[in-house]
Design a protein that fits this description.
Blueprint: H1 3-19, H2 28-35, E1 37-38, E2 47-48, H3 56-62, E3 71-76, H4 82-95, E4 100-105, H5 108-125, H6 127-130, E5 147-150, E6 153-159, H7 163-166, E7 173-176, H8 192-198, E8 207-211, H9 221-227, E9 232-237, E10 244-245, E11 252-253, E12 263-265, E13 272-273, H10 275-283, E14 286-289, E15 296-301, H11 317-331, H12 333-342, H13 357-361, E16 378-385, E17 389-397, E18 403-412, H14 418-428, E19 431-433, E20 439-448, H15 453-460, E21 468-474, E22 500-503, H16 504-515, E23 525-526, H17 535-541, E24 544-551, E25 554-561, H18 569-583, H19 589-598, H20 607-613, H21 616-620, H22 637-640
Parallel strand pairs: 3-8, 3-15, 4-6, 4-7, 7-8, 9-15, 16-20, 18-23, 20-21, 21-22
Antiparallel strand pairs: 1-2, 5-6, 9-10, 9-14, 11-12, 12-13, 16-17, 17-18, 19-20, 24-25
Helix pairs in contact: 2-4, 3-4, 11-12, 16-18, 17-18
The structure holds zinc ion.
Length: about 650
């Protein structure tokens, strides 16, 4: 090989190497400490970035280059340096390991503002970045507010409210900021977080960062993500006893009307830390996982950990924290909510909406157990047993699960005695009627065996063939929410009699959702005036409050009584009726409506025939004389007979509207 060609060869390789992106040898925190300069406009403490100033930032940034981490989640309070942490990740992937980067802000306007106020100053003041990105004012710079081109990659900024921005070319680095402010769906395309994540799918070394302060409990994206992560918290040591703890708001206390004397108290020895001691304990703290790590790294940090200087007018940061809390409290629910989200970095628990008793009492309608609306196609009953009475509610259901309260009956007496059970038995076989004279019987009844189970089992056993089943309400099974009904009944009782385990939470969720929708219409609930549906009944029905709880990132509801003195048999009886309907299986409501229409007794002169089919009890309750409808076709006894039904089947007919 001659000298010239060797030179050309070398030049070629030099060119190739120069064109290749640099191999990342630095971690994000090392890059930041080497290159990053904090801008005057974004922080009071501008100048060279140092992790020593805000030590919890270091590990957080390095998650981005940790091969074990598939996603990093930051839920940090305001004033803890979250944006600078995110910017350092951004700077690293512009300079040290160039990539196609997508940054998503809640809206296009916020994306523009972030570009102007955060990214532009960072590029301007950080020499390593300034060299890479051309001035947007230069011609053909390739740079606009929402797009920055640099050697080896580019950055696109978009708003989560614009679905067009979320679809497009694959991108290796996805930074989603303030995800709790993202719309539920980007246009009609679906969850913007999922859409953004999809763009990184083809990269095995993709980087996904999601940050936010949390918003409303049960609807907070970041909190849900955090619950699915290893949920790291910043543990700090007490200077007096050395106890490691996560600082919480309840530990900050001050003498009445003297917030300037606020101290942070150790959970173990109650030593009151001064602000200097707080700062020192936070500086020397460490991240610790509070849940198992399964590839998602979550870091949660509240405002007590701030290392930023206190504002003018306050003695120190603890004073400022106490004063700001008092201001928020004075401002009411709205400002407390902002404080809880941005300072505590916790989701705000919205008081579950109470269903006002008056709203139910005022919407009663004019019908009776003998003049039910023709929409009623199926009757079921829920029965609750107490030590001095039995309460039963009959419910009618129709197309799209619209429901009608038929009657709430209280049988007073001792469930240890037979009389009360005889009264219940007579009641369960009685006949109800619609205004069009179609007669209906209770197709299935569920009786709570949680109390007096022996008596309940003894009553139900000979009546199982009639659809009278014992049942038991279940709130939770371990960490799982049981379904409304399992696929088949349990026999796990002394007498080995089949009984149904009813998923109370699912049923109550559906009932409470439906109570809020005014009838008529699909899934609404009607009440008649009287027949046991008085104010006391409505008070019982609305006696519980729905609250949100979390289990491994999944929000679920629990139902709790606000006032233990208020009874809730009405609600329980409704729950069992809902389960009884569910146990009947998939109902073909359209077909059933035809069957019911066909069963309307013909003209009165032919009534004796139908009369024979009735039981003695049913005969007591005859349909009132009403204007005769056009005579329907004659019906056979076979049509009147109860249709055979599948005893067990799986599926969720009565779905909660979650
Ligand atoms: Zn201590």
């Amino acid at each position: 090989m001659n000298k010239a060609s060797t030179e050309a060869h070398r030049a070629f390789w030099r060119g190739m190497i120069a064109a290749m992106p640099p191999i990342p040898a630095l971690s994000v925190s090392e890059w930041a400490e080497t290159h990053r300069v904090l801008s005057r406009e974004s922080t009071a403490e501008h100048g060279r970035f140092s992790c020593d100033r805000v030590p919890y930032q270091r590990a957080a940034m390095d998650d981005a280059t940790d091969p074990a981490v598939s996603q990093s989640i930051y839920a940090w309070a305001a004033q803890t340096g979250k944006s600078e942490t995110l910017n350092n990740v951004l700077g690293f992937f512009m300079h040290a390991d160039p990539a196609a980067i997508l940054m998503v802000q809640p809206t296009v306007d916020l994306a523009e503002a972030y570009s102007k106020e955060r990214i532009a100053p960072m590029i301007r003041d950080t020499p390593a970045l300034r060299k890479l990105v051309r001035d947007p004012r230069a011609r053909d710079s390739g740079n606009t507010l929402l797009s920055k081109v640099f050697p080896g990659g580019n950055l696109a900024l978009i708003g989560a409210n614009a679905p067009s921005g979320l679809a497009g070319r694959p991108r290796r680095v996805i930074l989603l900021d303030e995800v709790d402010r993202f719309p539920v769906s980007a246009g009609t395309e679906g969850d913007p977080c999922a859409l953004a994540d999809r763009r990184a799918e083809s990269f095995p070394n993709s980087v996904k960062v999601k940050t936010s302060t949390p918003t409303v409990k049960g609807r907070s994206r970041i909190w849900s993500l955090l619950e699915g992560s290893d949920f790291q918290k910043w543990f700090c040591a007490c200077p007096a006893c050395g106890h490691q703890q996560v600082w919480e708001w309840a530990q900050i206390r001050w003498p009445k009307d003297k917030p300037e004397d606020a101290r942070l108290h150790c959970a173990k020895c109650d030593h009151g830390l001064t602000d200097e001691e707080r700062i020192e304990s936070v500086r020397t703290g460490e991240w610790r996982a509070t849940k198992p790590f399964i590839g998602i790294r979550g870091r949660w940090l509240n405002g007590i950990n701030t290392l930023f200087r206190h504002h003018k007018g306050y003695r120190n940061r603890l004073h400022q924290m106490a004063a700001e809390f008092l201001q928020a409290k004075e401002g009411g629910a709205q400002t407390m909510r902002v404080w809880t989200n941005t300072f505590l970095a916790e989701p705000y628990e919205e008081e579950a909406e109470a269903i006002p008793v008056s709203s139910l009492a005022s919407r009663v309608e004019d019908y009776s157990p003998e003049t039910l609306p023709s929409g009623v196609l199926q009757l079921v009953a829920g029965v609750d047993v107490q030590n001095n009475r039995i309460e039963a509610t009959v419910w009618g259901f129709g197309i799209e699960e619209e429901s009608w309260a038929v009657e709430h009956k209280v049988f007073d007496g001792d469930p240890e005695q037979d009389e009360i059970w005889q009264a219940l038995d007579s009641y369960l076989v009685r006949t109800f009627a619609r205004e069009d004279r179609c007669e209906l019987k209770i197709e299935r009844a569920f009786i709570d065996m949680g109390f007096k189970s022996k008596r309940v089992l003894a009553f139900c056993y000979p009546r199982l063939v009639r659809g009278v089943y014992p049942c038991r309400g279940l709130n939770r099974v371990g960490t799982a929410i049981p379904p409304l009904l399992p696929t088949k009944p349990s026999r796990n009782n002394r007498a080995r009699i089949p009984h149904w385990n009813v998923g109370v939470t699912v049923a109550k969720t559906a009932i409470y959702d439906r109570l809020t929708i005014p009838p008529p219409g699909p899934r609404t609930i009607h009440f008649p005036e009287g027949y046991g549906f008085d104010e006391g009944y409505f008070r019982q029905l609305t006696s519980e409050r729905r609250r949100t709880r979390y289990s491994y990132g999944q929000a679920y509801f629990v139902f709790e009584k606000d006032n233990n003195a208020v009874r809730n048999e009405a609600l329980d009886a409704f729950v069992y009726a809902v389960a009884a309907l569910e146990s009947l299986g998939r109902v073909n409501w359209g077909k059933l409506a035809e069957v019911r229409r066909a069963s309307i007794p013909p003209a009165p002169e032919r009534e004796p025939e139908a009369e024979q089919a009735k039981t003695a009890e049913a005969a007591l309750a005859t349909a009132p004389e009403s204007p005769k409808p056009t005579p329907p076709p004659a019906i056979t006894a076979q049509q009147l007979a109860p249709r055979p039904r599948p005893m067990f089947r799986p599926r969720n007919l009565f779905r909660p509207m979650l």
